[in-house]
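To assess whether ligand presence alters the predicted conformation, the chain was also submitted together with heme C. Input:
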Amino acid sequence: MKRLLVFSLAVSVLFVATSLCFASWDTCKGCHTDSGKPGPSKAALLKKFKTSDDLVQAAMASTNPMMQSMKNETVLRAAAKDMGLKEAKASKKEDKKTETKKGPKDGK
Ligand code: HEC
């Protein structure tokens, strides 16, 4: 019995770990369904946001309680990438000077 418990615990830990590592649009589509309920559909989001920066910012700014647990930049960025959004507009080369809140991507 104890073994079974340890085993199931290990499985669930593994599950959570993998879902965090492989964060993707899959994390979002439970709510962001094609019907647009409760969250806007992927198509609607893609229409509204052109870069992952836009999307991440909007997600972070969302006041909807359902989005609270999703306010994790790593998760959001991975999802944005998965959706096919570009990091940011590549043409802006002076970003470094003007943009201060740019965190390192692999910051742990
Ligand atoms: C538990 C359900 C749920 C999950 C999971 C979820 N969302 Fe949401 N999301 C919502 C709801 C509800 C809204 C608010 C919709 C509204 O305000 O009309 C929202 C809003 C947003 C917005 C803001 C849209 C806007 O127009 O301002 C973005 C961007 C967003 N979600 C992205 C994501 C991403 C990316 C993920 C996955 C990492 C995700 N969401 C996961 C429910 C969810």
